[in-house]
Amino acid sequence: MKKLSNGREQKKNHKAKNAVAGDVRIIGGQYKRRIVSFIDAEGLRPTPDRLRETLFNWLIGDIHDAKVLDSCAGSGVLGFEALSRGAAHTTFIEVNPAQVTMLRKSAENLRLEPPMYQIIQGTAEQVLTQNQTIQRHFDIVFIDPPYAQDLWQPILTALINQSLISTETLVYLEADKDLTLQLDQLVASINESAEPPAEIMQGLISFECLKQTKVGQVVAGLYQLSAS
Length: 228
Description:
Elements: H1 2-17, E1 20-25, E2 35-39, H2 49-58, E3 67-70, H3 77-84, E4 89-94, H4 97-109, E5 117-121, H5 124-130, E6 140-143, H6 152-161, E7 170-175, H7 180-193, E8 205-215, E9 218-227
Parallel strand pairs: 3-4, 3-6, 4-5, 6-7
Antiparallel strand pairs: 1-2, 7-9, 8-9
Helix pairs in contact: 5-6
């Protein structure tokens, strides 16, 4: 009887853990006011509305027909917002299987057609390196991982090494600190270790900060790859 009770309790706890923790609204475009949901998981926190509005104001001239990567998708609100505002395709990468299920439900609720999106389960750095279905140059990349893990570094490295971004790509980084110094250090390390893929450019690479803002403790910036 005790085992049955414990089993029920474990099942209940597992169900509660994977239950919907919250909803977030798309704030612009054809899916404006539509809701996407997310589970209660460590580090999963959708980009606040105010910051999202700023981001898509930055992208207003570039979002139409763009090929987008939401590399640490979480709720997927950045990728869905991009589609709402006219992007041609969004690739969502998410490591948590329960949240992957939630992303698929959100896509179905928005009635998105399969050519408009792709949802892949796994860590972004592994997917970008190993998944053969990703063979596109992205026009816009969102890198918004759990702040404490600094995953933006291996993700950017994978994007560069796999020639998935170019000097035309706009890269959005979001963190709990200014990443400028660490970004310079990362690029210096890439330049020293090996020459960047010829498909991207010849010579040394760097990142130019096009836009930057701070909302509370969150620092966000829009960057672009350049070569010397």
